[in-house]
Design goal:
The chain is of the alpha/beta class. Helix content is 30%, strand content 21%.
């Protein structure tokens, strides 16, 4: 079942074994977020292009990362990032990070969605990190409604999603202990896709879910 959305922010030449594990897990992946340099970078990176091609050949969505700075970044800069991701890495979707949860800037993200569709993207993921206003479901395929630590995730009181069922909800959890069951908790909380990693601190997404390193332990 394709339930994992994996943001893995390490270079393939530095962490080749981890990228091999991601490619090997292709049937279980909803998608992989590609982030060469807090975005596509200033020039193509052959190592990322190669791993992106392998993922696409395995039938995995490849989503190009772009930081929106909560609506403060110029839309032209974000569209440039998305175009570079497509041209250099063949990405077929976008992962927009640092998205506000309130409706006040919905039109800004609606313009970005139209631009993403215009460059040929079929999947749009918005990382709010918390439950956003339901209006965002009108433009997104995936809404990240939680990003935080395992302790915070367990303590969070589940709230029913007030929007429709056409959008997938995603939970991104870090600082997860090896004996935890994040997949079961994500499913119980209505998340169709998720990722849970052991990483901590400012860069938790430089680690992989335990099950990608130990596929024999996957339920």
């Amino acid at each position: 079942m394709s339930t994992l959305l994996v943001p893995y922010y390490e270079h393939p030449s530095v962490r080749p074994a981890e990228w091999e594990a991601i490619v090997a897990a292709a049937p279980r992946l909803y998608g992989v977020v590609l982030n060469p340099a807090s975005g596509p970078g200033d020039r193509p990176d052959a190592a990322f292009a190669e791993v992106a091609a392998r993922l696409r050949a395995a039938g995995v969505r490849v989503l190009g990362y772009a930081d929106t700075d909560y609506g403060r970044r110029a839309t032209t800069d974000i569209v440039r990032d998305l175009t570079r991701h497509r041209d250099w890495y063949g990405t077929d979707g976008a992962f927009l990070d640092q998205v506000p949860s309130g409706p006040e800037q919905f039109e800004y993200y609606q313009r970005l969605a139209v631009a993403a569709w215009g460059v040929g993207y079929g999947t749009l993921a918005l990382n709010h990190g918390t439950a956003p206003h339901p209006c965002y479901a009108r433009i997104a395929d995936v809404l990240v409604t939680f990003e935080g630590t395992w302790a915070s995730y367990r303590a969070l009181r589940p709230e029913p999603w007030p929007g429709g069922s056409d959008v997938r909800l995603c939970h991104l959890v870090y600082d997860v202990p090896p004996d935890a069951d994040p997949e079961g908790l994500a499913r119980a909380r209505g998340a169709a896709v998720h990722c849970a990693v052991p990483g901590t601190g400012d860069h938790p997404w430089g680690t992989l879910p335990y099950t990608l390193h130990n596929p024999e332990n996957t339920p």
